[in-house]
């Protein structure tokens, strides 16, 4: 039997306390965390994963990026091993073990109280930006019924294994769905929820209904749950490069975008097929972005009211539209992510992001108005007739357009899944890549995927936290393409393990968490 060896590089990283930083931030400071949507959907429900060229191919579950990975530090903090951000574990501000209105704060309190936070012994906590907080959302969840009175069978849009969260408090006159979290991001415009003159607005995330909305901020109007963050102050900041060929690269996320959109509204299924069929600037691997990818290019310093533009950098082109109020505006854009209501088996709606006003019909505000702001994330039916919703839908009369626009993307740390039982694509990868293992955390098996642009001799080994080799998964020459290897840790104890890929001169290390 081959003797176990120690890797001096990994031992050095561990002894210097750098492994988490290296894994999360070696390439980019704004890594998009995968949505964790694993089901494939038609216009109504779950389907088997479509094959390339079939209807509904190219949706969220078929493109897996940086898989969510967290570490409980045992001091009331959780580290996101992908983004490098550290979060408060709980929102229980008064320590009574119950999450209710007593734990919520008005916006000004939420903003100012961060300076006094000492969770984990740290003093540099801050109220997260909308992009920081949205990094935690997971679309394995399903929206709770707005009129629900029971929390049974609820599917949060948040990993509740690590993060403690709550609902609205019925006894205080709230709905269970009133579980919004505050952020530091203020809308560059006004919203008109029950107001004719308009209100200043903060963007928040709701992990019970799976949306980003703008919330009016008159003093003392509404309270929010708070989860402070620290670390990686570069997260959420784009670094856009115009490539001069109709594409824009964001070096912060590693994604390449089409500079222009598709120019017209289409159904969700057609948005998928448009993206998959696109060949542009010499690339044929374009895709419809998932919700978190598309959200990454929202520019919250811009809006139709403030800059007379879409909420996106001027490097991009956005088709101008006429909105429901008859005003010049900018589109909502489809994502590849399905939005589920009440159960993850529901697949009738698709997630979209508003790059123009998020319109709603409120009679008390004069009819069609901006209710949630440019930069909101909501959902539309995947198919149907918009004329059947003359006054929108829901308490704020959300505009139902159904035919939304498309902006395609490529690149990033994304692996393509053509079949549920296979991995691969006919396209030769552009470069070497080691993907985050999935699932992670895992018990007792996980899959490690990597890509080779050319045939290479490949070494893939796994080490424990002491740098001792515990498994040699690959030690041979492999052809160019996308490869996957199963790692069976049934004989190992729970803990953190590092898998190290060497292919030619390319080397990279990933981090896996075994939880038994």
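Sequence proposed for the structure above (516 residues):
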């Amino acid at each position: 039997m081959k003797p176990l060896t120690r890797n001096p590089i990994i031992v050095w990283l561990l002894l210097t306390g750098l492994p988490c930083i290296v894994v999360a931030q070696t390439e980019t400071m704004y890594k998009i965390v995968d949505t964790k949507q694993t089901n494939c959907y038609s216009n109504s429900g779950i389907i088997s994963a479509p094959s390339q060229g079939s209807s509904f191919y190219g949706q969220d579950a078929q493109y897996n990026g940086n898989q969510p990975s967290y570490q409980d530090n045992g001091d009331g903090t959780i580290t996101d091993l992908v983004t490098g951000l550290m979060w408060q574990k709980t929102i229980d501000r008064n320590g009574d073990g119950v999450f209710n209105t007593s734990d919520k704060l008005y916006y000004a309190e939420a903003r100012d109280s961060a300076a006094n936070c000492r969770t984990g012994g740290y003093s540099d906590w801050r109220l997260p930006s909308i992009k920081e907080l949205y990094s935690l959302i997971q679309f394995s969840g399903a929206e709770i019924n707005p009129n629900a009175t029971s929390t049974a069978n609820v599917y949060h849009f948040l990993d509740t294994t690590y993060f403690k969260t709550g609902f609205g408090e019925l006894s205080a006159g709230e709905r269970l769905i009133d579980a919004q979290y505050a952020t530091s991001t203020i809308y560059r415009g006004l919203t008109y929820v029950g107001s004719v003159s308009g209100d200043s607005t903060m963007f928040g995330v709701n992990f019970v209904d799976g949306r980003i909305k703008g919330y009016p901020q008159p003093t003392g109007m509404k309270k929010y749950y708070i989860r402070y963050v620290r670390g990686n102050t570069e997260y959420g900041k784009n670094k856009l490069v115009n490539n001069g060929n109709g594409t824009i690269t964001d070096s912060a996320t590693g994604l390449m975008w089409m500079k222009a959109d598709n120019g017209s509204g289409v159904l969700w299924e057609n948005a998928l097929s448009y993206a998959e069929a696109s060949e542009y600037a010499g690339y044929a691997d374009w895709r419809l972005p998932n919700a978190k990818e598309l959200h990454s290019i929202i520019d919250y310093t811009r809006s139709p009211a403030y800059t007379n533009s879409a909420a996106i950098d001027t490097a991009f082109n956005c088709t101008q539209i006429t909105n429901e109020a008859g005003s010049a505006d900018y589109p909502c854009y489809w994502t590849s992510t399905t939005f589920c209501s009440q159960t993850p088996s529901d697949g009738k709606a698709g997630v979209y992001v508003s790059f123009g006003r998020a319109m709603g019909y409120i009679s008390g505000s004069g009819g069609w108005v901006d209710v949630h702001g440019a930069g909101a994330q909501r959902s539309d039916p995947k198919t149907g007739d918009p004329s059947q919703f003359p006054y929108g839908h829901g308490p704020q009369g959300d505009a139902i357009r159904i035919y939304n626009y498309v902006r395609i993307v490529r690149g990033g740390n994304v692996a393509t899944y053509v079949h549920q039982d296979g991995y691969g694509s006919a396209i030769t990868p552009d470069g070497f890549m080691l993907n985050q293992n999935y699932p992670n955390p895992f018990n007792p098996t996980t899959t490690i995927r990597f890509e080779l642009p050319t045939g290479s001799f490949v070494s893939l080994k796994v080490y424990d936290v002491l740098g001792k080799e515990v498994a040699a998964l690959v030690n041979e020459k492999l052809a160019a393409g996308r490869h996957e290897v199963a790692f069976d840790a049934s004989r190992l104890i729970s803990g953190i393990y590092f898998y190290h890929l060497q292919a030619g001169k390319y080397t990279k290390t990933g981090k896996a968490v075994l939880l038994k």
